[in-house]
Amino acid sequence: MKDIEILDSTLRDGAQGEGISFSVQDKLKVLKSLDELGIDLVEAGNPGSNPKDLEFFRQAKGLKLNHSRLAAFGSTRRRGVKVEDDDNVKNLLTADTPVVVIFGKSWDFHVTDIIKTTKKENLAMIEETVAFFVGKGKEVVFDAEHFYDGYKASPEYALQCVEAGLRGGACSAVLCDTNGGSLPKFIYDATSDVVKKFPDAVIGVHCHNDSGFAEANSVMAIDAGARHLQGTLAGFGERCGNANLSTLIANLQLKNQCRCVPDESLALLTPMVRRVAEIANISISNGMPYVGKSAFAHKGGMHIDGVSKNTSSFEHVDPDLVGNERRFLMSEVAGRSMILKRIQRISPSLDKDSPETKEIMEELKNMEMEGYQFEGAESSFELVIRKHLGKYRPFFELDHFRIIGDQPAEDKNISNSAILKIKVDGTEEITAAQGDGPVNALDKALRKALEVFYPELKKVHLTDYKVRVLDSKQATAARVRVLIESADETDSWTTVGVSTDIIEASWIALRDSIEFKLLKEIERKMSAYF
Q1: Residue 483 region, left (φ>0) first, then alpha (ψ -120 to 50), else beta?
Q2: Among 346, 351, 356, which Cα is nearest to 381's?
Q3: Per the structure, how many domains does the chain have?
Q4: 168-203: pLDDT as tens digits
Q5: Is 102 helix (H, G, I), strand (E, B) or coil?
Q6: Residue 249 lies inside a defined structural domain of this protein
Q7: Structural domain ending residue among the three candidates 418, 438, 453
Q8: Max alpha carbon distance in the chain (Å)?
Q9: CATH of the domain at 16
Q10: Can the peptide bond before residue 408 be classed as cis, meaning omega within 30 degrees of 0?
Q11: 3-class SS shares of the chain: helix, strand, coil, % to 5
Q12: Are residues 363 and 240 located together in one domain of the fold?
C-alpha cells in the first residue's frame, strides 16, 4: 500500500465556495469530524484575513485531536519586505499551529503582471518565507500556485519555484492546478517530470474542477508519483469547486493500492460527508460517487434482480465499505434492508417480513414524499419507529402557542415573544419568553414550561438551526425542512420538521428534540437501575 498524505481544505478553500459561511462553532465541528475520519492535515483558514479565523485558531488550541494536525494558510512575504516584518507572516505565527501552508507564485505571468515583481525576487520570497517558518519549528507545506499553467508557459521557471520551496525546507511541494483547466494526460506528464527532478521530495497535488477533471487529474498525479493530496471532503469550493476528497479517498484506497485514511475509518466516509454538508447547510448531490443517496440505489427490472442475486452484478464496491447503504426503489421491499437493523435496535424480534416493518416502511415513504429526510436527523427517525412499535409515550401535550413579532425591534436581541400552554399528566403550565426571532422565543418558552416537570432539560441547549427550501418554485409558499441540533453535557442529537409554515416545521423539530432527550433519560435511568 502506498501511503498518501491527505490535506483537507474545507475550512479554507471550501469556505470560499458560493453560499458557504462557517461560524467559528461550525468550523470546530468540521475539524472534529475530519479528525474522526482520520484526515492527516486540516487547513483551517488564513489568520491574517479575518478576525473569525483568528478566533477559530484560538479556540482550536483547546481541542484534543486524535489524528489530524491543524494547518494555518498564508502567502509568502510581500516583495521588498523582510520576512520577519511581514504582517501576514506575523499573523500566521499567532495561529500557533504545528503546520503552516505557504503559497507562492510559480507562473511567471503572475509574478511579473499580477504581483509586479521580478522572477528572482519571487524565488527569494518563496525560499525565505518557508525557511523562516521551518526555523520556528513549523512543518511547512509549500503550495506552488498556478504550477501547471506556469509549467505550460515556462517549465524551467515553474520548476525553480518548486526547488525554492524545497530548498527552504518544505516537507512537501504541492503542484496546484489553480485555474482548474488542465487535462489528465498533461497533469500526469508534468507531475512525472517534477517527481523525476526531485526524487527525494514529497510532491503533492491540488486540483480545481473548472474543467470537470479535478478527481481524474488528482488520480493521474498520484499515479505519476505524488504522495500528498489536497481537496475538500464534499468537493465544494470557489467557482466549480475543489477535488472531491470523498471520491478520491474511496477510489485510491479501494482500487489503487493507496492508504489515505485508517482502514477502520473508511466506513465513516458517508456519514462524515453528510455531517459536513449539513454543517455547511448545503445539499450534496444524490448522485455523488460513493456517498450520495443514489450511489447504490437500484430501481426495478433486471438491476434489482441482479443485485439481489449477486451485488457485484450492478455495484462496483460494497456500500458498507464507505458507510453507505443499498436502496431498492419502487419495490415492495423498498428500503427494508436499509432500516431493518435500526428497527431491530428497538425491537430485536422483528424481521423484514413483519407487519410492523412494512407499516414503518410505508410511513417513511409518505414522510419522504412530504419532504422529510432522516440522514442527518436520526433522532426523529427513531421516534417514528418507536411510535409505530408502541415504545413511545408523549411527555407533554401542546394546548396552543402564540408568536408575537415586533418590527423594527427596539432591542435587537428581543424581536419576538412566545406565549405557550402545555399539559403534563393533566397539569397545565402557561409561560412566556422573549427571544431573538420567533424560533428562539418558542424554544425558550417551551423549555421554561417543561423544566418545571423535567429539571434535566436545564442542561439541554439548542446548538444549531438550519432551514432548507424544498421547492423554490413555490416562492414564499414553499415547503421547508428545518433541522435542529441540540446538546447536553455528554451528547448531541438532530431532529427534523417539515411544513409550508416555517414556525410549524420548527415546532415539530423542537418537540422531537425535547422528547428524544427525555426518552433517552428514562432509558439511561432504567439501565443504571438494572
Answers
A1: beta
A2: 346
A3: 3
A4: 999 999 999 999 999 999 999 999 999 999 999 999
A5: strand
A6: yes
A7: 453
A8: 83
A9: 3.20.20.70
A10: yes
A11: 45, 20, 35
A12: no
CATH number at residue 379: 3.30.160.340
Count CB-CB contacts under 10 A for residue 345.
Answer: 10
Stronger pLDDT, 404 or 158, i.e. the higher one: 158
Phi, psi angles (nearest 5°) of residue 321: -60, -30
Q: How far apart are CA 521 and CA 524, in angstroms?
A: 5
Query: What are φ and ψ of residue 36, in 5° steps?
Result: -60, -35
Grid cell at residue 36: 474522526
Same structural domain, 259 and 402: no
Domain that holds residue 204: 2-280
Same domain, yes or no, for 423 and 505?
no
Distances (CA, A) of 460 to 174, 359, 454, 464: 45, 33, 11, 12
Give the list of residues 6+ apart from residue 287 with CB closer than 8 angstroms, or none.
294, 295
**25 and 90 share a domain?**
yes
pLDDT, position 330: 40
Instruction: With a cut of 80, say whether residue 125 has pLDDT above it.
Output: yes
pLDDT at 458 over 80: yes
Instruction: Enumerate helices (H) and strands (E) in the chain, giving the number of each.
Output: 17, 18
- pLDDT reported for residue 286: 82
Query: Residue 340 and residue 507: Cα distance in Å, rounded?
Result: 29
pLDDT at 473: 60
**pLDDT, tens digit (0-9, with 9 covering 90-100), for 54-83:** 899 999 998 999 999 999 999 999 999 999
DSSP one-letter code for 208: B
Q: Where are the alpha helices (DSSP H) in 347-407?
A: 355-370, 378-389
Asked whether 191 and 203 are in contact (CB, 8 A), the reply is yes
Question: Whole-number mean pLDDT of the chain?
Answer: 89
**pTM score, whole prediction:** 0.69
pLDDT tens digits, residue range 478-529? 788 998 888 876 677 889 999 988 999 999 999 999 999 998 888 777 665 5
* The three grid cell numbers given for residue 33, joined into one nine-digit string: 469530524
Instruction: Output the domain CATH number for residue 438.
Output: 3.30.160
**In the block, which residue shows the cell 436520526?**
378
Q: Which residue has the cell 417551551?
A: 446
Structural domain contains residue 304: no
- The x, y and z cell numbers of residue 272, run together, are 462524515
Residue 250 has pLDDT above 90, yes or no: yes
Shared domain check, 520 and 433: no
DSSP strand E in 232-347: where?
258-259, 297-299, 327-329
Q: Are residues 410 and 492 in the same domain?
A: no
